[in-house]
């Protein structure tokens, strides 16, 4: 009996020791206190990046008066330059302009050379599929322009088969194509006018506000406005798709500028009228 009792006590002790061993080989206190995995760094959106950098990269032509051009001192100025500079100021960053030709501006935006394009970009459905736009800050009408000596072109219906000087990706070019014109590609507004004055093209379709200002500045240039397109074009600032936060910041700044009269004041300065609506 004593022998049996001794065996039972020995077995109980072994089980207890086995339990202690199991506990000591489990998850150690050191392991349970290990630091949590490092959280993935949140990617900055474009507005956050612009604010962190303290500057906003702006693509513009610099040759498209009165919207973006150089004055007699060589300073970049114009309606678009002033509007986007005021927007940047309200967002709290420095505007940094990078000039390029019109047709290169979309590629520059795609490749992230710019954060935004400020160059009277027409808001069109096909562009909205690929890009974001701010709310419109200019409303304008396309006009048909010929040399002053031209007596045969009396409207858009007369330009079929004629040479039209146009930047290739402009919405104004679409109007020329729609009316059957042969497109002669140019780098910008000034080259289109030069070709027209030298009679190497027959017509150009361009922005009415820009033409009126140009003819006011240079009344001796032998060109004339023949007709206005019946459709009104709305223009906005252009962004890469997904720039939601920066677009919202632009729209807020534009709304505030409308409410406090700043946008109308800039417009009056350049055009003598409010072209923002």
From TrEMBL:
PROSITE patterns: PROKAR_LIPOPROTEIN (PS51257), SBP_BACTERIAL_3 (PS01039). Residues 1-18 form the signal peptide. The keyword Signal applies. Residues 22-33 have a biased composition (Polar residues). It comes from the Bacteria. The keyword Signal applies. This is Amino acid ABC transporter substrate-binding protein. The lineage of its organism: Bacteria, Bacillati, Bacillota, Bacilli, Bacillales.
